[in-house]
């Protein structure tokens, strides 16, 4: 995988985040790897093509964040096997929200703890939590599920601490991509709430993995993000 970083196009965005072609973020005890970079592309006929980013977190627990669409089934299975994993080896599957390009393969992970929005379940047994009240759910001291609504009413992100780049936030569609400053509002169910969560993420995380683009580095300067 390429290791160089490249500034996003556009002067305004270039001052706020730096897109990266690095897809692996090693760490101790957890490492984060992007298995598939998502995309969203408008088509001439008014339709658009989209698929969600798929991310694997490995360490004391194996965590998959978003599974792509149903059309990604074979790619997902192959990519996991290339890393020595079968679906039964995945401890947690976190669906950042309920859109088909993000949770289209949940059925492959029947032995995993499943998170979709504010629901946390193992089989038909649901775990009490306070995600809907805005409080994180801690998988352990290094990894937390963080409520980040706005794009939908129950979006969540996964925060991973201790990587080589610091805090990595696997953010789903809280961010479409690094350069989404002029476009994300059209896809948001509640832009007022989402902008608050976007600013918080930009200030707290070192790396953000968005739902439809390459990872990007943040600058963590609160004054930079007043327009976000």
If you had to describe this structure to a student in words, what would you say it looks like?
With 228 residues, the protein is α+β, with helices and mostly antiparallel strands. Helices cover 14% and strands 31% of the residues. The protein has helices at 11-14, 73-82, 100-103, 191-204, and strands at 17-19, 24-25, 31-36, 39-42, 48-51, 54-58, 63-65, 92-95, 113-116, 119-122, 125-126, 137-138, 143-147, 156-163, 166-172, 207-210, 216-218. The strands form 3 sheets. The protein has an 8-stranded mixed beta sheet, with no helix packed on it. A 7-stranded mixed beta sheet has the order 1-17-16-15-14-13-12. A two-stranded antiparallel sheet has the order 4-5. Helix 3 links the parallel strand 8 (92-95) and strand 9 (113-116). The longest helix is centred in the last third of the chain and has 14 residues, at 191-204. It is globular and about 40 Å long. The two termini are 30 Å apart. The relative contact order is 0.18. Mean pLDDT is 90; it is low at 1-15.
